[in-house]
Amino acid sequence: MKLAPLFDRVVLKPLVAEETTKSGIVLPGQAKEKPQQAEVIAVGPGGLVDGKEVTMQVKVGDKVIFSKYSGTEVEGENENDKLVIVKQNDILAVIE
Amino acid sequence: MKLAPLFDRVVLKPLVAEETTKSGIVLPGQAKEKPQQAEVIAVGPGGLVDGKEVTMQVKVGDKVIFSKYSGTEVEGENENDKLVIVKQNDILAVIE
Amino acid sequence: MKLAPLFDRVVLKPLVAEETTKSGIVLPGQAKEKPQQAEVIAVGPGGLVDGKEVTMQVKVGDKVIFSKYSGTEVEGENENDKLVIVKQNDILAVIE
Amino acid sequence: MKLAPLFDRVVLKPLVAEETTKSGIVLPGQAKEKPQQAEVIAVGPGGLVDGKEVTMQVKVGDKVIFSKYSGTEVEGENENDKLVIVKQNDILAVIE
Amino acid sequence: MKLAPLFDRVVLKPLVAEETTKSGIVLPGQAKEKPQQAEVIAVGPGGLVDGKEVTMQVKVGDKVIFSKYSGTEVEGENENDKLVIVKQNDILAVIE
Amino acid sequence: MKLAPLFDRVVLKPLVAEETTKSGIVLPGQAKEKPQQAEVIAVGPGGLVDGKEVTMQVKVGDKVIFSKYSGTEVEGENENDKLVIVKQNDILAVIE
Amino acid sequence: MKLAPLFDRVVLKPLVAEETTKSGIVLPGQAKEKPQQAEVIAVGPGGLVDGKEVTMQVKVGDKVIFSKYSGTEVEGENENDKLVIVKQNDILAVIE
Prior knowledge:
six-stranded antiparallel sheet; mainly beta; 0% helix; homoheptamer
C-alpha cells in the first residue's frame, strides 16, 4: 500500500547494512543491531502541527538516521517491506 | 447510532484484512494482530482545539493508518460495528 | 441541586441503556458496562480557559459520548441522580 | 485569621451536610464521605496567572462544588474552622 | 547572610506558633506540625520568569501561608534562623 | 579549562565553608553537608532560551545560593576545582 | 558517513583524554569515566524548532562540554569513530 503521511510525519524504509565476510561473500546485515539508517519514502505536508509551524527538511530519497525507538511500524506495498512512520523531529540527520 | 465528533476528533471503522488460504478460501482476518487500518466514518469540525488552530486533513471515506493504542472504542449503528474515535493527530497516514 | 459549571465544564447525566429480553420485559441496563452515553444537563460559559479561548460546541439536551474515566461524579437534584461534571474536551462526539 | 488569596486562588469553607434521622434528630454529616460542597470565603484578584489571563468567576458567598483532592487545608479564624485554598480551576460548578 | 532572591522567588521566615500551657507557661511551638505560616523577608524583582510576565504581589513584612512541601531551606543571618526560598506561586494567601 | 556557557547557563564554583574549632584551628568544611553556596565563575549570554527571552541577573564574582541537586559537575582549570554548570533559574538568590 | 543534522542538532565527537603515567608513557584515557568533552563535527541549521526560534551558538571545530546522558550514539566515517548527535541545548559550555 502507498502511504501519504499527515502533518510532519515521514515514512521511512529502514536500510539493511550489507557486509562482506573475509571469503568475499556478502551477507545481509539483518541479524545486526544497527537499524537506525533509513531511506525516506514519503513526506507529510508540514504546516501547522499541534499549533506550531513546521517546515519539512527531508525529501523522498534522502538517506537519514533516526531514533531507533521512535515511530510506528507498518507494512509497505510488499508484505516483506517493513516501513516506519516517524515524526520529522525523530530524524536526527541526513546522511550526505 | 450516528456520531458527530467534536473538535479534531475522527470516527474510524477499523478494517478487517481478508486473506486467502492456499485452498482459495477467503478467511476474514479477525484473529490477526493488524487492526491499524481503518476507514474514516465521520470528521470533526477542527478549528481551535486546546487553543491551537487545527485544520482537518482527512475526509469521510479515506482509508487511513492509525496508532493502535490510541482512541476510544464505541459501538456503531449496528451492535457489531466497533468504531474508534481518535484525535486526527493519531492518524499517521492516508492510504492511497 | 442545580449546577452552573465554570469555564468549559459540562454537567452530564449518564444514560442507562434499556434492553428488551426475549420475553419482552424491559430491563434497565444498570448492570452493563456501557456508561459512556449521556445527556447534557448544563454547559459552562467557555471563554478563556487556562489562557486558551474555548467555544462551547454542545448544548443542553444533546446526547453525547464521553470518556468513561473522565470527570467527577456529583449528586443531582434527586439523591438518585448521578451526574458527572466533565471538561468539554472529554466529550468525544454528539449522537445525532 | 483572615486570608487574602493570591492570583486565582479561592478560600473555601467545606459545607457539612446536615441530616435528619427518622427520629427527627439532626445529625451533622461529619462522618459522611461528601465534602465536595463548599462556600466561597475569599477570592483572589485573578489577572496574569502563570502568564495566562484569568478572570474570577466566583464571588464570596457562592456555594460551589470542588474537586475533593485539590487544594491545601488551612485553619480559619476559629481553630475549628477547616478551610481549603484551591485554584479557581479546581471549582467545578456553582450551586444555584 | 542577606539574600536577594532572583526572578519571582521570595525568602520566607517560617513562623513558630507560640502556645500557652494551662499553667500559663509559653512554649514555642517547634514540635508542632504547623509550619505553613511565614513572614516575608525578601522579594525578587519579578518580571519575565520562564518567558512569562510576573508581578510580585507580596512585600517584605507580609504574613503569608505557603505550601509546606515547596521551596528550599537555607540558613539566615543567624545560624538558628531557618529560612525558606519559594516561588511566589507557592504562596497561597496573605494573612490580614 | 576555561568555560563559556551557552544560553542561560552559569558556571559556579561551590564554596567550602571554613570553620574554627574551639582550639582555634581552621578546618575546611568539606565533610559538611552544606554545598549550596557558590561563586559565579562564568555567565552565558542569555537571549532566546527554548523560545523564551531570558536576561541574565547574576554576574561573575557574585556569591549565590543554588539548588543542591541541580546542574552538572565539571572540572575546572585545576584538577581539584570542582565546578558546577547550572541554568540561571537554578540559582535561588544572590548573597549580599 | 557524513552527517547533516536537522534542526538544532549537533554532531559531536567525544574526546578521549590523554594521560601521562609517572614513567612518561602516554595512555589514552579510554578507561576513565570522563566522556563529557567533545569536538563539534557538524551543526544543524537552527531556525524554527518545535515552534521556537533557535540560533546556533556553536560552530564546527568548537571544543564543548555536553551532558553525558544526552544524545544518540552513531557511527562516523570510520567504524571506530563513535559520534554523538545531541540537541544544541544539551551542550553546556564551549571550552576556550
